[in-house]
Amino acid sequence: MRYLFWLWLVPMSLFWGWFGLSYYDINFGLLFLRRELHDLVFAIYGDILGVDPAAIPGMFLKACIFDTFLIAGIIAFRRRRQIREWWALRRGHVSPGTEPVMEPVENSRIQVPAE
Fold first, then answer.
1. Do 4 and 72 meet the contact criterion of CB atoms below 8 Å apart?
2. Rounded to whole angstroms, how far apart are CA atoms 35 and 26?
3. Cβ atoms within 10 Å, residue 33
4. 98 Cβ contact partners less than 8 Å away, ≥ 6 residues apart
5. What is the pLDDT of residue 114?
6. Of 40, 71, 45, which is closest to residue 58 (Cα–Cα)?
7. DSSP-derived 3-state class of residue 33
8. Directed axis angle between helix 56-78 and helix 80-91, to 10°?
9. What are the DSSP calls for 71-103, one per residue?
């Protein structure tokens, strides 16, 4: 799971870091952070995909959000028992490391025969 997280976090950070810096032309003297290269990259992607280059960052953002929810769903599915236990603990139904205890209900309509 740790590798999955890093294989998701590093590319996202690199892309959005590059996108933000190049979009606002904060280039620190580096060619790949210039706005001209930013516009050229998205023009090439726009030509390849046949869409307006200005629409590509929005499409990429939607894909990143979808991927994030997909990865979160996979992680939640793999840890569903821990999540279920945490939820029960949080709601006060189970004490740690024990089975749930059925508490008697007052004013119950069920009659228990006397021994």
1. no
2. 8
3. 19
4. none
5. 60
6. 45
7. helix
8. 80
9. HHHHHHHHTHHHHHHHHHHHHTS--TTS---PP
Alpha helices in 1-115 (DSSP H): 2-23, 35-49, 56-78, 80-91
CA 22-2-18 angle, 5° bins = 0
Collapsing DSSP to helix, strand or coil, 64 comes out as helix
Longest dimension (CA), the chain: 90
Please give the Cα distance from 52 to 31 (Å, whole number): 24
Interatomic CA distance for residues 64 and 112, integer angstroms:
59
91-113 pLDDT, tens digit per residue, is 886 555 555 555 555 555 655 55
The pLDDT tens digits of the residues spanning 11-43 come to 999 999 999 999 999 999 999 999 999 999 999
Dihedral sign for Cα atoms in the order 43, 48, 52, 55: negative
